[in-house]
Design a protein that fits this description.
The complex is a heterodimer of chains A (116) and B (115). Chain A has strands at 3-5, 10-14, 19-21, 24-26, 32-39, 46-52, 60-61, 64-69, 74-79, 88-96, 105-106, 110-115. Helix content of chain A is 0%, strand content 52%. In chain A, a hairpin with a 4-residue loop joins strand 8 and strand 9. With 116 residues, chain A is mainly beta. Chain B is built from no helices and 11 strands. The mean pLDDT of chain B is 92. Classes of the chains: A mainly beta (116), B mainly beta (115). Chains A and B meet through strand 5, strand 6 and strand 11 of A and strand 5, strand 9 and strand 10 of B.
Chain lengths: 116, 115
Amino acid sequence: AQTVTQSQPEMSVQEAETVTLSCTYDTSESDYYLFWYKQPPSRQMILVIRQEAYKQQNATENRFSVNFQKAAKSFSLKISDSQLGDAAMYFCAYRSVNNAGNMLTFGGGTRLMVKP
Amino acid sequence: DAGVIQSPRHEVTEMGQEVTLRCKPISGHNSLFWYRQTMMRGLELLIYFNNNVPIDDSGMPEDRFSAKMPNASFSTLKIQPSEPRDSAVYFCASSWQGGTGNIQYFGAGTRLSVL
């Protein structure tokens, strides 16, 4: 079974600065998807960014980018020019390509605080 | 699209009562998922459906929990009888299996408190 680990329970960043959230995972599969979801105080789970394991190029979405290191099984999220609205819980998630459904395995989450 | 719609947003009940949580997936999606979020255990998958058929319910904690999907636009998660340890936020998510990445879209969740 796959596992996802987020080793940073909490992180803080100054507004306009850059912060990196860590995620590692354990799998024996060669093809899979990785996701970062954001959960603000409203509780809504919002997809931030997605990475296909077969793609070497790191995914980017505006101020959000990932550093995907397949050999190291690492998938970190970088937030540039942090904004107050970025304050939230961030969850890393793994999905196998091979399972019959789209089941996600989530990490424990990192709480990001943004200081004005 | 209105997104995944869950009701109620909050539910407070007493131990032993039956609780029914509801979910309307995004129109056109063919997979539906129920998750539970607690401080102790994080986000756990309870059950998921493909084309209205339950595929994997191994995450359902015990027989007190049941889920149904009578049609493509509606699903329920029922707890009978409820216990205080069932207190959590329950999320429903839907996706289109077959698309690139099979992205899951989440509802706003139902916060359940069992007294």
